[in-house]
Structure prediction request, 171 residues.
Amino acid sequence: MTPSLSLNEWTVLALLGEGAAHGFALARELEPTSDLGRIFMVHRPLVYRALSRVVALGLAEPHLTEPGVAGPRRTQHRLTHTGRAAVAAWLATPVDHVRDLRIEFLLKLRLNERSHLDHSKLVHHQQAALADTINQLIEVGQDADVVDLWRRQNALATSAFLTSLNNGVQP
Prediction:
């Protein structure tokens, strides 16, 4: 069983699933202007902390050491078999809350795309997982306050987004 990981740790693990990398390269992938950083930005020290934790948990391992360009030697890390299985399962698992679509689900979609994986099952499972919640949020009564209205609009947008993905519209 995979221990509970933070989103930082899952993201670092998933990036290692794309190929062996050192911490500095992983941190560049999560800068604000990068492909994934547009969704989820992680500061370099937190990337290194996440990398250390996934190594300590046996999900990744040092692979090789290379000279640094202008600094110390860099150690590339790669996934272990356990790490590879954990990432595959995480990338296929829907999120639990509508609020988690903005970052975690979008991150999973993009990581699946980058690995040329079909995300249609994930989208279908996500629709099913949130169907009851979305329906409850959409059915706001006349006495709705601003929070209820906000949640309703998010639920409507979520429903439309998942439906467009399910109908083959590219994200």
